[in-house]
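Hi C.,

You asked whether I'd gotten around to modeling the 177-residue construct. I have! Everything is below, sequence then structure, no commentary in between.
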Amino acid sequence: MQKFSKCTRIFLRVVLVLSAAVYPGLMAMLSAAGWRYNVEQGRYPEIFTVFSGWMYAGGILLCTGTVLCLLGAREKWWQCNIPAIGLGVVGCAACLSILHRFCAYADQHFSGLDETMEPVSQLYRDRLLPVLLPALLLTVLCVWQIVLAGPYRCRKRREKEARLNEEAPRILGDRIE
């Protein structure tokens, strides 16, 4: 059972790293870069500067949470999992809230793409909605690692108490009678 658990955690970490690199790392960042570029070219209104800033922030937070989750896999650094969960949730919320605001704006102001007339909002929804995958994996792995660190924390506490309760060394010149 332990071997299955270890293999599953390694597999989930690999999937987490790949999905974090693709969705918040590439898709969110490149979408934000495209919005920023179009604002600078004068094609999009200034509101897209705010959209791109929040999308950058969300992507960076999710990627940072992934790095902390990977660091938290070590027993000694299990505390890294707690901020990793927070960063993952906040990063995902930032990306998804901006996606929602962008889709609402795009449905009102943009026409469809190509000859299919597929809405622009649907294109971005398909690209950015999978940001949920790394956020979900991040949360699951961090909680799993926190639970697995429980026995480690108990062992360290027992060792510390044993060191504190050890008999003090004898001082020279003390006589035992």
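If it helps when you're writing up: The helical segments are 2-40, 47-71, 81-109, 120-128, 132-164.

Thanks,
B.
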